Amino acid sequence: MTSLPHHEGDKKKEAEGLKLSDDLLEALAKFQQIELQDFEMEVKDLEIIFEPGMAGQIMPKLKLPAAVAGGKPTAMLQVAFMPPIETYPNAITEVKLGGTRSEGGTRGRTLTIGGEVSPAFYTFERPVTHKPVVTLDVFDMEVPLSKAVKMHVKEVVGDPAAWAKLAVDKFGADMVTVHLISIDPLLKDAKPQDAVKTVEKILQAVDVPLVIGGCGDPVKDADVFEAICNAFPNERFLISSITRDMDVERCAKYVKKNGHAALSFTPMDLNLARELNRRLYDFLGREDIVMDLTTAALGYGLDYAFTNMERARMGGLMGDTELAHPMSSGTTNAWAAREAWLKMSAEWEPRELRGPLWEVTTALTLLLAGVDLFMMMHPAAVKTLKDVTNNLVSGKKADHSKYLEWVSVKA
Amino acid sequence: MSEKKKAGLKELSPIDVYKILPKINCKECGQENCMAFATKIVNREIDLDTCPPLLKKEHEKAYKQLKELLKPAVKEVVVGEGDLAVKLGGKLVMYRHEFTYMNPTAIAIDVTDEMPEAEVQNRIKKTEGFSYEYIGYTLKLNMVAVRSVSGDPEKFKATVKKVAESTKLPLILCALNPSVVEAGLMAAPKAKPLLYAATTENWKDMAELALMYNCPLVASAPNDLNALASLAKTLTAYGVQDLVLDPGTFANEGLPDTINNFTMLRRAATKGGEELAGYPLMGVPMVAWMGNGDTAEDLLKWRESYLASMLVVRFADILVMHGSDGWSLLPITVLRQNIYTDPRKPVAVAPGLKVFGTPDENSPVLFTSNFALTYYTVASDIESNKLNAYLIVVETEGAAIDSGVAGRKLTAERVADAIKESGVEGKVKHRRIIIPGKASRISGEIEELSGWKVQVGPRDSSEIPKYLIEKWQP
User: Which end of chain A is more exposed for a tag (fewer CB within 10 A), N or C?
Assistant: First the structure.
C-alpha cells in the first residue's frame, strides 16, 4: 500500500486535525442532546402488525387482473407481498450479568443478554428479546492508544476507576471492561491481589456490571480470575475469558461457586467453540456462558468473523444448542486495522473521523450477524451503535411520505 | 431450516448439469471433459456460453434448459455499456456462508442539474479517481447518479449531456417526471442508464421509456411491499424485464422498516422462490442528507456512511450516495470487498519461507504470522515497493501478531523453529532477523532460542520500506 504512508509529523497539519475533530465532538455533543430525547421509547409496545387475512395466503395472489389477455396492462396489477415469516426450534440462552444488593452483589442494576428467537433484527418476524449492550474498555495501565481515542481519555489513563466513571457517566457505557494488562508476566507481572484492588476501586466508582479481562497468559489469568471471583462473590462478573489452553475445570469451578459468568473464547472456529462449551457444561449452567468467536477488524478478517457469527446464530436458532449462547465481540480490535489509525494521504483524512467510523462499521456489521455484547473503545462509535440499536428495537414506523423527495433535494 | 429451498443452485450437483450437456468431451471449452465443465458450471467458475457445441442450433433446447436451471434467485441486471458496465444482483443465495455473493454492491455518487458545472465535473473526477489498493484489489466507485433538482427537462438534458461526455461510468437518471427522464435519455440515448423511478403514479410512462431506450428501470414503492410487488408484476407484464426494486431507505427511526424490507425481499427471493422479489435491491443512503439543514456536514457523511454499510450487509445491490469524502467512503468499499469474497477462502496461509524479488546473501530476513490478512498486507507492502527480502511465515494458528503474542500462539519457540525449518540459514550469511514491532515483547526470548540477533521492526508493515533504508545494514 504505497499510497498510505504520510506519517512525518507536520506540526501545523496535526494541529488542524485536532481542531477539526474538536469541532466534530462539539457537534456530536449537540447531536447527542437532541437525539437522546427521542430515545425515551416504549420498548414494551413492540408489536409487528400484519394485515389481517394475509396469513396463509399463498403469495403472490393476483387480486385484480386488469390486463387484457396477451396485451399490456392498462392499470396496475395488484398483488400482495406475503412476509416470509419462519419459526425456529430453539431460542438463544439468556445470560444475566451484574449482581444487585438483593442478590449479594453491589451493582445498581443487572443486564440480560441473549434470549433471541429470530435472527438479528428480523423484527418483521418477532421483536428483539434483549437489546444488545455495550461495555467500554478500561485499561489498568498505559497502553498504546490511537490518537483519535487518546484525545478522549488522556486525563484518566493510568487511573482505571476514573476511566470507568468517565465511560459510564459521559460515554453512556452499559458496562465496563477492566483489562488487567499489568498482570502480564512479560509486562509488570502484577500480583493477583493488586488486580483485586483495582477491581475493588472500579466497583466503588461505578455501579454497572463489569467484565473482568485478563492479559492472555493462560496460567496467570487463571490465578488472577480466581482471586477476583473469590473476593467479589455474586457480583456476577463476566470473566473474559476462558480459553482452551487454560485449566478449564479449575476456572469453571470458581466462576460457578461465586456466581459469575464465563466468556468462552475460541479463535474463529465453530467446532472449537462447541468443544470448549461442552467442556464448560460439566461445571457451568448454559445460562452462565457467553461466547466470543473472535472479532477481526474491518479489512482484516471481518468477513470471517461476520460469517462465523451469522452461522453460529442461525445454528443456535435451528437447534445447535452448543452454539445457542449470547455472543460477545471485541470490537475494539477494529483499531488493529491500519486504516483506523494511520495518517494517510489527504484524500482519506481526517483520521479522527475515519478511525471511529472504522470501529462503527465493524460493530454494525457484527450487530447484523447477531452480536449481543460489544466491547468498544471510541465514544462516538459507542454513541452511534447505541443510537442504531435503540432505533432498531423502537418499533417505530418509517415516515415514507417524503422519501421520494431525495431525487430533488438540494444537498 | 424450515425455510424452503429454491430448486437448483446451491444443491445443484454437477451430475444435474452433466445430464443435459452434449456429453461429447470435445474439450473445446478448455476443460478435460464434460463432467469437469459441469463441475465448473455448478461452482460458477465458468460461463455456460464457453461450451461451443451448446450454442449450436441442435442443442438449443439443452441450452435453454440449462439457463433455466442455473437462473439465479435474484436476476442479474446490467447498467451501462462497455468495459465499465455494472452488473447488479445475480445473487444465488441469502447467506454468505451458503455461497459466494455475486456482483459486489455498486456505489453511485450523485450530481444534480442545479450544481455549477465546475462542481459537477469535480464530483465526476472525484468519483472516477477514487482508488484504494487493498491486499491486491483496487477498490473503486462505480456509477454516477444524475438528479433533477430543477424539474426542468431542458436543464436535466443539458446536465446529462455534459456528464455523459465526461465519464464512461454508467449513469442513473433520477426524476419522477417521465418527460424529464425522457429529456435526459435524449442526451444519452445509447448509454443504457438505469432509470429512477417507476412509481404507482407514473409507471406506464416510465415503462414506455424503458422499453423504447432498452434501459433497466427502478420500481419504487416507499415502505410498501405490496405496492412494490404489484409494480414488479405490472412492469414485467408490460414487457420491462430488467427491474431494480427500491423499497425505500429510511434513516434513524426508519431503520427497522428499512432493514426489515430488504431482508424480507431477499428472503422471499432466495428461500421462497418469489420471482417478483427476485430483482436487485436499491438503497439510498443519501436520505441522511434530507431535512438536516443545521447539522454539521461531517455528521451527515458519518450517518450516510454507516447506513450504507448496514445495507451492504443486508442485501443492497446498488447504493446512491451524496458524501464523496474518502474517509466516509473507504469503510464501505472495504466492507463490500470483505462481504463479497469467497467464504471458503482459508483464514490462514501455509507457513514457510516466502521469497520476494531477487534476494541475495545480504538481504533482510523478516517474519510475520500466518493469518491470511496479516500475511497479504505485509506481502503487498514488500511487493509493491519492489523490495528484495526473505519473509518467514510463522505458524500462529491463524492469529495476527498482537493477538498471537497475547494468546501465546506466536511464541519465541515457534519463531525459532520456523527460522530453522525455513532453510534461510543456508541462503544468507548474516544472522539478523527483523521482527514485527507488535512482537517486541518476545524479542529477548527469540534471540535466546534462535541464536539470531533481533532487530525490532515497525509496528505496521507500511513502514517496512522506510525501515529497511534507514536501519538495514547487512
Answer: C
